[in-house]
From TrEMBL:
Family per similarity comment: Belongs to the pantothenate synthetase family.
Gene name of the encoded protein: panC
Keywords, alphabetical: ATP-binding, Cytoplasm, Ligase, Nucleotide-binding, Pantothenate biosynthesis
An annotated GO cellular component: cytosol
Source species of the chain: Motilibacter rhizosphaerae
Binding locations of (R)-pantoate: 62, 154
Note: The reaction proceeds by a bi uni uni bi ping pong mechanism.
Gene Ontology molecular-function annotations: ATP binding; pantoate-beta-alanine ligase activity
Protein name: Pantothenate synthetase
């Protein structure tokens, strides 16, 4: 049975009834197969005797002025069905006032990486993300927290916060789930018109084109990926970058990450993939 709670007190009471390890999957709702895969990973980590908690909360602190906070899809009934289907034990879907009973005075400083890539386009975004992630970790008290690689910079920053602030939780990354044609699953995909949906494919196709050039080196990877994006007039590129797996400067050889963000009409999409530079 999946229990829905909307306050910290109810959550504490529900968790007090249960034994075993606790895993949390934090989401903003509008759940899809990407989220389902995180729930399955969470269950795998704690086992049938453990507890899987999913949080559904559209966090105002991580949206900038002019972003889509107001129109972000809120589909709690459908989300509950997804959680039931995935065998989730507890769903925490709090109101904004429950999470922020007063205007937040104390926030997490996410450090210099938060000003790059996504943070360069969305100033303040990762301060808002890390603040709510830390708060939800305190509310749930999990042994393990599962985050998707689709939001790769978020995953790196959460790992950094947990290490730097000695937060007692294990952070596990889960691979990106894609549509059959390669588009990364994302709640924001539902904003796309059919034409934009076709244009949006350029992001994953660009990453694939880049990966194919991995043996030839950094410049070839970026050139091949950029050519795909340049050929798609429906895509306005925010960034295309190669970094190391911790999002420092890309090495000449070895593991790296190719990241892209672009606007397709009014919708902003991100994607990334790992690349082994310079061949095996
Ligand atoms: N396609 C996906 N594959 C794996 N994990 C995903 C995928 N999409 C989202 N996630 C993960 O689910 C968690 C919650 O993300 P969120 O609710 O913002 O979904 P989203 O689809 O990324 O939404 P948005 O479209 O607003 O970015 C995050 O850890 C995120 O990385
Ligand atoms: C981690 C998160 C739930 C915090 O609001 C959000 O950034 C997301 O959905 O990736
Ligand atoms: N998926 C990350 C949350 C956000 O875009 O605000």
């Amino acid at each position: 049975m999946t229990l829905l709670v909307d306050t910290a007190a109810e959550l504490r009471a529900a968790l007090a009834q249960r034994a075993g390890r606790v895993a949390v999957v934090m989401t903003m709702g509008a759940l899809h197969d990407g989220h389902r895969s995180l729930m399955a990973a969470a269950r795998g980590l704690v086992g049938e005797a453990g507890t899987v908690v999913v949080t559904v909360f559209v966090n105002p602190l991580q949206f900038g002025p002019g972003e889509d906070f107001a129109r972000y899809p809120r589909t709690l009934d459908a989300d509950l069905e997804v959680c039931r289907g995935a065998g989730v034990d507890v769903v925490l879907a709090p109101a904004v006032e429950e999470v922020y009973p007063r205007p937040q005075q104390v926030t997490v400083d996410p450090g210099p990486l938060a000003a790059q890539l996504e943070g360069a386009v969305r100033p303040g975004h990762f301060g808002g993300v890390l603040t709510v992630v830390l708060k939800l970790l305190h509310l749930v008290g999990p042994d393990v927290a599962v985050f998707g690689e689709k939001d790769y910079q978020q995953l790196v920053l959460v790992r950094g916060m947990v290490a730097d602030l000695a937060v007692p939780v294990e952070v596990v990354g889960a691979p990106t789930v894609r549509e059959p044609d390669g588009l990364a699953r994302s709640s924001r995909n539902r904003y796309l018109s059919p034409g934009e949906r076709t244009s949006a494919l350029a992001l994953s196709r660009a990453l694939t084109a880049g990966v194919r050039m991995a043996a030839t080196g950094r410049e070839s990877v970026l050139t091949a990926a950029r050519a795909v994006l340049d050929a798609e007039p429906g895509v306005a590129l925010d960034y295309l970058e190669l970094r190391d797996p911790e999002l420092g400067p890309a090495p000449e050889r070895g593991p790296a990450r190719l990241l892209v963000a672009a606007r397709v009409g009014a919708t902003r999409l991100i994607d990334n993939v790992d690349v082994l530079l310079g061949g095996a």
